[in-house]
Here is the input.
Amino acid sequence: MEITIRNLSKHYRTEGGSIAALDRINLQIPANKIFTLLGPSGCGKTTLLRCIVGLEIPDEGEITIGDEVVFSSEKKISRPPDKRDLGMVFQTYAIWPHMNVFENVAYPLQAQKKPKDEIARRVAKTLHFVQLDGFENRPATKLSGGQQQRVALARALVAEPKVILFDEPLSNLDAKLREETRKELRRFLTELAITAVYVTHDRLEALSLSDNVAVMKSGKIVEVGTPWEIYFETDRRFVADFIGRVNFIEGSIARMENGSVIVDSGIGTIVCDRKKNLPVNSPVTLGIRPEFIKTFYENPGAAENTFRGRIETLVFTGDVWEAEVKSGTETLVLRIDPTFPVKTGDDIFLHLDRRHCKLLFN
Amino acid sequence: MKRIFWGIVLALFMATGALAADQNQALADKAKVEGKVAFYANMTAIAPIMADFGKKYGVKAEYTRLSTTKFIATIMTEHAAGKLTADVLQAPVSVLQYLKDKGVLASYVSPSAAGYPKWANTDGKIQLFGIEYAALIYNRDLVKPADVPKTYQELTDPKWKGKIVMADPSTHATTISWLVGLNENVIKDDAKWMKFLKGLAANDPMFVASFGPTPAPIESGEKLIGISMPKYIITKAPAPLEWAHVSQPLMGSPRGIAITASAPHPNAARLFVDYWLSREAMNTLAIKVGEYVLTPGVYPPISGIDKAKVIPIRELSDQEIKSWGKEFKKIFARP
Amino acid sequence: MSIRNPGTIFTAPLIAVVGFLTVCPVAMLVLGSFSEGLGAFGTFTLAKYATAYTDPEFIRIILNTVIFTTGSAMVSTGLALFLAYLNNRSNIPFKFLFSIISIVPMMVPHILFAVSWVLLLNPTNGMINLFFRQALGWEGIVFSIYTLKGMILVEGLLDLPIAYLVIAPAMSSFDVSLEESSRVCGASNIRTLLRITLPVLRPAILAAVTLVIIRSMASFAVPSVIGMPGRIYVLATHIYRVVATGYAADYGLAAAIGMSALVASITLIFVYRRLTREGEKYVTVSSRGFHPTTIDLKGARYPLFGIVGLISFVLIVLPVAVLFYTSLVPYSMVPGVKAFAAMSWKHYIGVLKDPVSLISLKNSLLLGTGGASLGIVLSFFVAYTIVKIKTKASGFLESLSFLSFSFPGIVVGIGFMWFFVQTPLYSTIWALLVGYIATYLPYGIRPLTSAFVQIHGNLEESSRVCGGGALYTMRRIVLPLLVPGIVSGWILMATMFVRELSLSVVLSRPGTEVLAVQILRFSEDGLWGSLSALGIMMIFISTALVVIASFAGARLTSVKN
Here is the structure.
């Protein structure tokens, strides 16, 4: 089910006035896709999620789920959370400690006063779906973190909600389990073809799990797109920085050529693909991700974007060397093939891929 | 045996008082219509009297017990709100005096009080019927007969140091009145009286809140002697309590009874006062509770009380009690 | 504004109800303290305040009161922490003892408990002093009860249940991962206890300390039975002396003095609220921490148990034994051959034949069960408002709930009388019921707020999202998780109501007599035997109530398997 958010604002009163947790947000969340709200803590993503689900009441605006208006400050509509037909998985899982697995999962159906045999059938089906068959009578407190997470998922799914919402559900799991669960979750959600709204501050989670990502900052939506678009296409400094590792190089426009922008910078003259027209001499920030900087011991002889550098630090992470390389007045972070015999202090050549030298704006 | 004898005399007396009985009958009939009587008091173990009254006249007597410190506060609060449910009040005479001044009491002179002393009713409203007498009470197992004081002054003997219990003389109204009464009736010389007080203070008595907690430390032997009430000899029997038969008179605050002006059951109230003052009821009070009553010839069954001189002390005004309390606080302060 | 608080609508009516219950009597006292004469109404005067606060003795009394109340709070909170920790978090043997120890002083009439200690520790022939002198040849007095130390000891023991019932639920629902992470960091058990456990429990500890200080400020039994013979006066006995001197007791003056207790209590509550405002920081029940692991005491197991055994001996066995002994002997006797020969059941028979005692048994039982149940329902809503709806109004509500609680008992009773006499409830059993609930509301509210604070908001929210309405969520999620708090609160209230004296002595009338008043009558008449017999029966009733409540609580919290 599609979710439409129009002009949504929410303010929190503080000692010295009020701060906008949500600042006139407009957002279209497509049906039957995994949609992620990504942003640093305090950006308003959880507040937005809680407004959708009905746990917070916005000050202004309108929220429509499917064709039903669940909140509208103008029409004075505010459906309570229990009347919105949603499912939600909390960061803490919020598994009720005084109930066993069956009771936890059966709860939404019991609240709807479904007949007993139907409840039993649907709970069994859902538990099977999340691979918790046979756990029915296990007390909720005797479960591992991963199992609790699945109980929470089963509970959110069992009543076949219009939309399922996730509030950083993986942050309490250890790294390895998180990765597995992420894949599993994507499989579950794709299989169900259900609208899912997912809140996280973890870019990897956002990229690998979502169909669409909205990046938030200070109560505003900064950018919306597919993970690929967000990662590669953004021209916003904040988004580029938040979604992955990126080197920023300050400079100014030297000239514009056909298809190219020539930038003067601390490491030399850099040639980038031209996407916009910019006045000559205007200051720019150029962003390039570490993976698009290649390293050589010998000058590769390319015509452009080749610079000299010296390795300042090296960190071995298994799959790569993570290196800091000083070139001109800038220090760049880049990755070097782990089998490449490098050491600190080595002089090397760098080559920047012009397709990935992005001009970024605030 | 003497009690039984008096009981028989009483029964004969009642049976032959035909005229009185006639009047009594008319009152009793009206009272029966009213159905009940509410009695506010602070007395121990008067349940039998209430029960006997109910049995005799078919009028239910309800006893509301109010401690002395809350007596006036409660009555005045109910009175001011127009909700005073009491028909008959019993209290130390000073309390009734206060209530009389506030217009709470009605006039009534009971025929049963015919034989009582004249001073027991001076205003036609408050009828005195007993004396809340105090004495030196000691532990007869632990105090040798030779050591028992023969005068109040002997209490100042240093041999009693740390062995005396008494109610706090800076706050306990009855004890304050008693000490002042001692000056007015027994140790009339002010200097000698002051010497007595200072000597008593020098013996460092243990203070408790009121008379109620005085006998326990004497019984248990924590203390040996105290200024307390002889009635405990009866109510706490078989505790080894005895009163010191001093040569001087025993003293106490008079107890009074009165009807309220706004009594919801005025006839039952009169009938109850008549019964209360009767020999039958007073006899119960003396025998069961050890009270000293003003009915001629009725004494509590405590050895020697019938021979003792028991006198009422002057009622101190509230102001006097407070100023004497302050005075005693200074005298009894630990150095 | 947030949707998880459908209870916002409760706030106004709750403030109205709680305000009405607690403000009215206190307002009457304020009126009385400013008026000429002895009632609540009269011409305006400041004379009573002038008299009250120009008394040169007053500074000494305040000092004694401060030492007495804080001392008692230290004793009871310290003991409560020790017992609650061992009970909930260690493998100490015979755990059932703990819940008994912590409850017993709740059930013994305080005046009797104090008297028992006098019999044990008075300097002349107190049994313990005698034992040391005769059996061990000790010179002089081991410990005199008639001192400030003695008062603190006994009051501290008497208030232990309040502290324990506030701290224990918090201790048992503690998120064990906090402790585990500390231990993982290499900290020892003791270090973990000092650096993690106690700070996390800070709200509960502060609540306990606040509650005990306020309670001991209003307490009268210990200051009168132990303090007065030692001529050590605190605020409550000072007020008594003011009231008791003379026949026309000036309760306006008493109220004027009592105002200082009220101000002190309100200040304390304010400080307490300031210190615990960041409630979220201490949300410690998560789904994972519901069953805390226990700490192996190893070699310390039996020595620690020895200490607990000693405490329970001193707390339960001694006073109850003294009480039982007193109920069997004809008068106050030092134990010995003579005393044993004289023992009989006559006091019990006397009490059971006494119609007033029987009525009071019945009334107290009714007031205890009915009053506590109603009181818990009200406390539940108040606690919910205080914890979950954090508005200015809810803070106001919490302070309100302490109003009549913090007034010294002798005075608050009069306030209620002045108030009730204006209503048709006067001289009915409903006056007692309403008065009890109004005065002792904090006994219900405190354990419940502690319990509420520890239920993570997500547990409720997820029920709402799952389609449970506000009431459905309350019934199926909030209430079951609150059971330990509800049981604590109910026990505190029920046992308090069974032994309530301050209000009862003013408000009870023929037909509405209650146990404590009957016990007071016996004590006024010096009838220690009957008093002890009735006291023992009272302990039986309270024990029965506690057992039933704990059993019901255990049934309700057991996770179905």
